[in-house]
Amino acid sequence: MNESTGLFAAAEVGNTVSKADYERELDALRVQLLNLQYDLRERGFSVVLLIAGDDRPGCVNLLRNLHEWMDARYLQNHVMFGSDHADAAERPALARYWRRLPPAGRIGLFLGGWPSSLLRAALDERWSSAEFDKALDHLSRFEKLLVDDGTLVLKFWLHLPRNVVQKRIVAARADPEKHWDFAQHDWDVIEQYDEAFDLIERLLRRSNRVDAPWEIVESTDARYCDLRIGGAIARALSARLSDPVPVPEKVPFVAEIDGHSLLGQLDLSLTVSADRYESELTALQALVNQLSHQACEAGIACVFVFEGVDAAGKGGAIRRLARALPVQHSRVIPIGAPNEVERAHHYLWRFWMRLPKPGEIVVFDRSWYGRLLVERVEGLVPEEVQQRAFDEINEFESTLAEDRFVVCKFWLQIDKDEQLERFSARARTPYKKYKLTPDDFRNRENWDQYQVAAHEMLARTNTSYAPWSLIGANDKRHARLQVLRIVADQLTESLAEAANTATESGRMRGKQGKKGKKGKKGGKGKAAMKRKKK
Amino acid sequence: MNESTGLFAAAEVGNTVSKADYERELDALRVQLLNLQYDLRERGFSVVLLIAGDDRPGCVNLLRNLHEWMDARYLQNHVMFGSDHADAAERPALARYWRRLPPAGRIGLFLGGWPSSLLRAALDERWSSAEFDKALDHLSRFEKLLVDDGTLVLKFWLHLPRNVVQKRIVAARADPEKHWDFAQHDWDVIEQYDEAFDLIERLLRRSNRVDAPWEIVESTDARYCDLRIGGAIARALSARLSDPVPVPEKVPFVAEIDGHSLLGQLDLSLTVSADRYESELTALQALVNQLSHQACEAGIACVFVFEGVDAAGKGGAIRRLARALPVQHSRVIPIGAPNEVERAHHYLWRFWMRLPKPGEIVVFDRSWYGRLLVERVEGLVPEEVQQRAFDEINEFESTLAEDRFVVCKFWLQIDKDEQLERFSARARTPYKKYKLTPDDFRNRENWDQYQVAAHEMLARTNTSYAPWSLIGANDKRHARLQVLRIVADQLTESLAEAANTATESGRMRGKQGKKGKKGKKGGKGKAAMKRKKK
Question: I want to staple A46 with a disulfide (CB 3.0 to 4.6 A). Which of A38, A102, B139, B341 is the partner?
Answer without folding.
Answer: A102
